[in-house]
Amino acid sequence: MRLTLRTLLACLDHVLPVTEQHELDAKLAGSAAARQLVARIRRVVEQPGIPAPRLDGRGLAADANSVAEYLDNCLDPDRLETFERICLESDMHLAEVAACHQILARIAADPAATAPLDAAGRKKLLVALGQRSTETGEESRRREVFENARAVHAALDGAPADRQPSGTRGRAAAWPAWVAALVALALLVVLGTFLFEAVGRGRSRSAAGRREPEVAREPVRPPGEEHVAEAAASPPVAGPQVETTPPVAPPVATPVPAVASVPAETPPPAPPAEPPPVAAPVPAVVATAPPSQPAPGMPRVPHGDALAIAGTAADTAGVVAPAPPAPALEPPPEESLGFADADDLLIHRVSGEGKPAWQAVAAGAPLAAREDLVAPFGFQPDIQVRGVTIRLLPGTRALVSVEADGVPRLEVVFGRAIVRASRPDARIGIAAAGLVGTVTAGLADPVAVSVDLERAPGGDPAHDAARVRAAVIASNGGIVWRQAGAGGQGVLQGIAAEGLLDARTALTWESTSPGVGKTARLDPPPAWVVAPQQLDRLQRSASDAVRERLAATGSLDRSLRELSADRRAENRILAAATLALLGDFDVAVELLCDESPGRRLEQRQWANLEAGVVPLALARGANAAARLRQALEDRGPHGKAEALFAMARGFSDDELAAGAAATLVEGLDDADLVVRRYAFKCLCDIVQPAAADRLRYRPDGLPSLRREGVEWWRGQLQKGLIRRPGAA
After folding, report:
1. For the whole model, what pTM was predicted?
2. CA-to-CA distance for 498 and 509, rounded, in angstroms?
């Protein structure tokens, strides 16, 4: 019998006949890779911090049906190897499969778990379910359950389904509890029968022609395994070995400054290709035939055959034969760095027909060796890269690659990301503007990375670079940070070349002082670091609409453009903001300027869309600012593109004193709504009026209602109060 992932799970959960159990125990004792995998399985199953796949996930790895088909030996042979590779690379999926197998094995081993309940047990279950249903059930759901359960109740009593027992009309209030209890009892019996039969069918495949199995004994383990195996997080992979990080010295300031470059609109070119690493020797791993075609004479395991971990059919009982040379099982191929982990929308840049384009990444699809990724607003996708989980928060652009030594690398261009790994030896390289280095320890707790782009009001995006703020944040546990130096020009002053960053502490960097790094205590950490961002009902609806349209069309660009004309405003806003992240500002500008009935945005919606699109476009560099300026010319009101672009970039104190303040006040009475909205936004950003004074004027109000607010702002202008607080 071959030692595969599925046979290994069967061996660990003691569902094999004694002879096969002994055979696999011997193979396990002679395979270092198998022992490491056993230790990893035990660790991930017992580790509470590992998340579970989403209940509504799609794709081979995220779909719960894939796990069920795999455990029941019904998974398509063409998808079997891919599924097992995902399990071997991802602790989350390995824990899901191993825990489900363990639960099924315990149910099959305990006849009482699937035995029918006696009268006392049924009564106790009915009472408990009735109380729960009464406390939490909704009235509409109760009526629906009542109608569905009448047939069940009638069948149990032997009465027709349409005849109501006497005396129930006077006790209508008690029916919901009984109905819910009966339905739950029926489902429980059906589920238990199904599980018992499924496991029984699996046992019968290997039990034919053999004697009854004896009591299974504990697997044979070599001495000292308990102390050594726990340190192994996954089977060895090909690539150069990395030395263990030495003890960390306390932070010491270094005199050599590092010059950081501000992220441009176009991502930096990929580094020169490195020679392929030499594969390190690993224990042999051979592939078996699909479950539907077992090798002749090879006994089948109750849960099937798949990728073999070690051992061959020629091994004899009680003798561990060395495994023959075979191709090594690696993580994704060298040209792939990982895969998308969930069905949240993830976009990557591809080259097609001689020009770059943006496409959606399917859940479970492999990623190229270097990826330019975007997480749209309303989505926070996870990706798995060499055992490290990277979550990109909404509105983030990042570059993901693998360094020459096999360590994954994350470069955040703008936005936020959260990194973590369950393996204690996991590492990741991070580049966040001027903060460039490697987290060599501490990834068991989340590590956050942020890059914020800011502009001074009135600056010219074509010549004035944006102000960049970057941070690497240790949330609940400390990390070891080793600097690499931005562009190879040395480490930052103010922080050690390698040192320990305590929990709830951040490394910070600003483009105004490119050679200096700082540490800052964050107590508590930012909310986005501690808990994932929660979407409201309308945002979730818009995100679902994008998923559905993308599944129907298969084209990201077509899906977004169709949604930009949707009747629901939240769908149009999300589509326009996503296109703007990808560098297309036409739809967003058209939506900001649209005044037609049924299409005009409310003031709050307009402010949210403008804040998510325009400041980032101006801060991304000259190319993005020029495209925004052209979109205002093409899609905005005729002849007012220059004025709108000036208000979008803001005004300096000198410009306000030179007449820009008067221009803004006059814009409150403009004929075009978008001009009035921008003028009012600029005035509020400059003056910071009280809430009561803000309510004096509404850009979308009737002319008669706007008049009083315009006169109030004119009075402020005459008093010289249209200036920033503290300005002369």
Report:
1. 0.59
2. 16
